[in-house]
Amino acid sequence: MDKLDLHFHSNYSDGKLPVSEIAAIIKSEKLKFCALVDHDSVAGVRELETCLNGSGTKVITGVELTARYNENEIHILAYDFNIDVAAEILKERKELVGLQKIEEMKKAIQLFRGEGFEITDGLVPSEKQPVGLTVALDVCASRFNQDLFTKRHAKLIIPEEVYYEYQAPGKSCAVERSDVTAEWLVKKFKRVARDLIIAHPFVSVSVVTKPLNEKDISNLVRIGLTGVEVYHNETSDEQISLVKRIVRERGLHYTGGSDSHGKKGDTPIGQYGSNRTIPDFYLSNYNSNIELN
């Protein structure tokens, strides 16, 4: 059986390892197919292609896209596209989200100060984390805020508590999270990428988001996504069976990957669980020639 991994990350996004080290692992594991899917970045894809040139491993261009879906955040895996065109779309996305974050930050600061919390003067959004987390970390760093939170809630404050008590939908400091919508990404990438895959549908992408359900999968397929990630290190066997059924019934494409970030304890590249290799995948232009059981 051919070895593969269509979902791993490098230090071009939130991974630990440089592309050269990842390429060395791929060569050692003798993967036939691979895809580097850094978060909202294609900066490392050509480097991986160069590192693996002549190795016998096919590099499928990939990226993991962040999007807003209703009040939730989801990740979409785009595959098989022109890197330069994708880079232009990602540049446009970055500019739009950057402007949104400035407005989100203003609203969040106003609401938290209205609740009596101290917020650092001149606090600005971070490109690499949500505005809500930036604000929550700032709130937690203040002794004044810790004392205020203890008086109100009888415990010390951590970012998760800031979210659940103040930032969650319906709470007093809730602000719509900055991001482009899933519809925006589908519209932009549909003409560029051969496949748009729902990443790890039953795995929350952070502590402030919810896993998707079967209805969500149906809605996302309706707006233009072509498939679902079946094999993932945090997806249970029961959930994998459910996704396989959805794939069969709807004739969807499917993928799998380690979601490795190169950190201690991560699932190794080429696996989706302890000693479990990714058995198969199917994309528009590529497949492992094994039928989904």
UniProtKB/TrEMBL annotation:
It comes from the Bacteria. This is Polymerase/histidinol phosphatase N-terminal domain-containing protein. InterPro entries: PHP_dom, PHP_domain, Pol/His_phosphatase_N, Pol/histidinol_Pase-like. Residues 4-69 form the Polymerase/histidinol phosphatase N-terminal domain. SMART domains: POLIIIAc. PANTHER family: EXONUCLEASE, POLYMERASE_HISTIDINOL PHOSPHATASE N-TERMINAL DOMAIN-CONTAINING PROTEIN. GO terms for molecular function: 5'-3' DNA exonuclease activity; 5'-3' RNA exonuclease activity. Pfam families: PHP.
